[in-house]
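To: structure subgroup
Subject: Chain for Friday's discussion

All,

I'm putting the inputs and outputs inline so they're searchable in the archive.
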Amino acid sequence: MTAPLHPRESERLAVLRALALDDSLPEAGLDALVACAARLTGAPVALLSLIDEDRQWACAAHGYTGGPLPREHAFCAHAILQDGLFEVTDTHLDPRFVDNPLVTGAPHVRFYAGQSLLVDGLPMGTLCVIDQAPRALDAADRDTLAQLGRAAVELLQSRRRLREAGRQRERLLDFARAAGDWMWESDAGHRLVWASDAFEAITGGPTAARIGQSITALPLLDERGVPLPGPRGFAEVLDRHEAFSRVLVALDTPRGTLAVSRSAVPVLDEAGRFAGYRGTARDLTAMLAAEAEARRGETMLRQLAAQVPGTFFSYRSRPDGGAAYEFVSEGITRLAGLDAAAMQRDAAAYWQLVHPEDLPRLFADIQASAATLQPAESAYRLRHTDGRLRWVECRAVPTRPPDGGTLWHGFIADITERKATEAALREHEQRWQLAANAAGIGIAQLTLADGLVHLDERACANHGLPFPQRGIRLADWAAQIDPADRDAALSGVRRTIADGTPFEGRYRVHRPDGVVRWLEFVVRATYDADGHADGAIGTCRDVHELQIASELARAKVEAESASRAKTELLSRVSHELRTPLNAILGFAQLMALDATQPLAGEQQRRLASVQRGGRHLLDLINDVLDLTRIESAEFSLDLQPVDLSAALRGSVALVQPLADVRGITLALPPAGRHWGRGDARAVEQILMNLLSNAIKYGPARAPVTVSVEHRDGEIALRVSDRGAGLDEDDLARLFQPFERLHTESRRIEGSGLGLVIARELAHAMGGRIGADSTPGEGSVFSLHLLACDPPAPAEPGPEPALPAPAAGAAPAVRPQRRVIYVEDEPLNQVLVEELFRARPQWRLEIAADGRSGLAMAADAPPDLMLIDMNLPDTNGLALLQRLRAEPALRGLRCVALSADAMSEQIAAARAAGFDDYWTKPIDVPRMLRALDTLLGAPA
């Protein structure tokens, strides 16, 4: 974007022209100042730029050799539109400069900061620093640029003032030659008797008004125009009756008090007596003011230079071989411990501090600069007067004075830290090279001039090529890349060279020995001195193992995502199946338990069939959920020593009714305690499955035997039956989900998931399920766990004291219990209403949504709330949170009653504060017993 013109552009250009700065001549002082700006801010480029009608040009530069630029491309054209510092931290992010030719091409500006230079209140240009990397100045850098900017302005203004003072002096000389000064004559009494016409033109007052007035009272001034002490003034000079010249006096005129230089000779009469003076007078007011301004600028420059961590100097070498420092800033004291004035008196004081090994090279650089008038630049060691050894850098621009010697204006800076940084950088580069070799990182470079790719030793190894290679053609290099990846790789390299876009990618490379490896390439464009792309350079690294691992990790993530999707699907299917099952099994149970209207025998048998079918479907749903829970990443068991004898007794007690129906005897191992590492509930679930399978699939009235075996740190519980047995094909299919091995024709209940669940549970406990079978003889299924020692016995605690009933106390009259059931499904509402008919001392109230339930509870707190987890206007967790937020309902007992039987949902509900979680389909007798317990009714 082109910057608009300054609001006072014409005035600004007039001041700029008045400075009369020629861009073709070097400005040594300004060059030293911009070099200082570059060093202090750490920027590679610094300029003192000026903006005229249609261009930007640098009257001083460091790190930049280009010529003037069109004004529409100049960053400084933007900077002069505001006072103070104008900073662009990253040109690629600034819409004003992102497509600027100085950004897209050489010098590839990424960072710019320009301090506006105000002369007579108008910006002439900037003191700016430039970098090819994005960055931001800190407060110290901004302050440095501001101070150096003021110094630059003072130098520019001093140049103008000195030029004006010089012109004024020239005019005065011309006046003298052309009698341009006014001439005057006085009498013996020092009264003005005549003045030339120039008097009126210079003073602005009529000459006649001054005739006859005494001139003795005029105050005397020193050479700088400052009044001298003494009461008599000019009379002291006049009363001597001697010739005098260039005596300064103060003359009050209509144009103000003027500093007038008077020269005169005495006039004698014929008798030789003093008769007065005849002389000339010159107005030096302007000249003295210009000199004062110049001195003030020099003083400010010295003050600012004293703040810079370095020193400015002017050094003159005379034709006779002598040399001296004509100017040295106060920074030399910090740099070398020398006094600036002493150094100007004796240049040898400085040379004696230069390290002897560096002194010959320094003198050679000075002599070469004097001979060629090229800038001198040298780095050398300097020993401070306190003994510290420092590295300094001297940069100076030579000029040839009229006497034939050489005059340098320059700057000496302390570069000790930079030298240390460079040494650290070299060490870092060495370490990087070692690390790159260790990491297998190679360097590859493409040059457009010859179309060859040059590989270093590691890059050759990565490509399977011998080292060294003199260079291979780009087409030959691309031929090594797998055809599926080749076009993408070549397109990335070409795009990098075309527009500078960095290129990164991983591709398969076919080595000459036939091995295929994944290589990672990172490529950047390279540019010539004119900023044109001349090739590309990049790194290549063998990432074959990383790529394979990445693909495996991606496959794992996809598998886990699929597993989560399956779990969510099964959870939804389970919920949707349990909801109608709740009505089927619930009403079937109520019909079977109805003593007031009992069913006939045939109807009872039909109802029993309905219940069996519903329970079978419920078992299938539960088995699917168990399998899903085990396969999920969140599944975990509480592994600790388990009393396997107690687990076996508990499992036998649960399957004993099934064994009694089939007339099967369960033969158990001798009494004893056996300990294995596992989860108690998981162990019981596995044993129940193995025992129930042996009972269901074995012949009626045939015994089922359980034995215990210890071997190699394992303990095994073996369940043996005398069934038909399994062949090798059956054993291979045994642990497939829903595989029942043709038992459907025998009408044996089962889902085909029990053994799958048992196997997964055993694996989760670090154990396994064994299966051995012989057709016609029977099968042996075993649970193998790691054997372990029993847990340490717990310290016995005191028996809780039970409150004794009060003697003769009358039975308490129990008030009617009130229960609110929050449920939106009409069938579930009717089912629970029917269930509550068995407890006439309870009163059930139905709320069809969460808001109604909350309002009913707040109006009259119930004894218990049953809450469905999925409601039309909220969910059970949110409703519980709102109930607990009400002070009157904070202690209300709440039970979740839901068809969602996933363990995660149950755990979340209990963690949220539900007193219990009951799953649908409901078990009517168990639910009545639970309600009796919660509501304090007799069982």
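Points worth raising on Friday:
Residues 799-813 have pLDDT under 50 and may be disordered.
The longest strand covers residues 256-268.

D.
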